[in-house]
Amino acid sequence: MTTLPPDIERTLISADTIQERVQQLAAQIEADYRQADRVRLVGILKGAFIFMADLTRRLSIPHVVDFMAISSYGKSSVSGEVRILMDLREPIAGQHVIIVEDILDTGSTLAYLLHNLQSRGPASLKTCVLVRKERPGLNLPIDYLGFDIPDVWVVGYGLDYAEKHRTLPYIAELKRPSAD
Ligand code: PRP
Fold first, then answer.
1. Continuous segment of H or E residues that includes residue 64
2. Where are the domains of the chain?
3. What is the pTM (predicted TM-score) of this model?
4. What is the pLDDT of residues 141-158, one digit of tens each?
5. Which of 20, 42, 44, 48 has its CA 20 to 30 A from that of 70?
6. Domain 36-172 has CATH 3.40.50.2020
């Protein structure tokens, strides 16, 4: 059994389970876009870089990757201010686009991205999210979802806590910081 880092409470999703699910998501995407000339996967940095790397290597349909970096403030507020730190390199008008996100937490980032990318005139726009926190009232459209997880602080497989633990191969719950 793997020894967990001291600030990790427990493993939520094992590395094997993640890999299995990524394969299934890739198979779903392949089936849905069999007729498309090409698909553009848009990974949201930094968190999605590992998920994106695994997903894209399992896709055998024609596809290209691009990335955006987003910063969001006021995660606790519903309005959650969001801004683009790094934009796409190329226009997406007329293309089939899939947003690839590691996590849906408050939903502010994805809501912003859907609105922003839709305004650029893609032929289609879908979403692929690895984990979604179970929060009441959150109902953004997710076309390809990996897992629902409890509303706890999670790290691993791209997700960080103060830039730590992004490279863990599994997704884990972080211990709550002690009160002192
Ligand atoms: C995380 C994650 C999503 C966003 C989701 O990014 O990668 O993009 O939060 O949260 P939301 O649903 O509440 O908007 P973060 O801002 O932590 O940056 P990072 O990906 O660079 O770590």
1. strand 63-72
2. 36-172
3. 0.93
4. 899 999 999 999 999 999
5. 20
6. yes
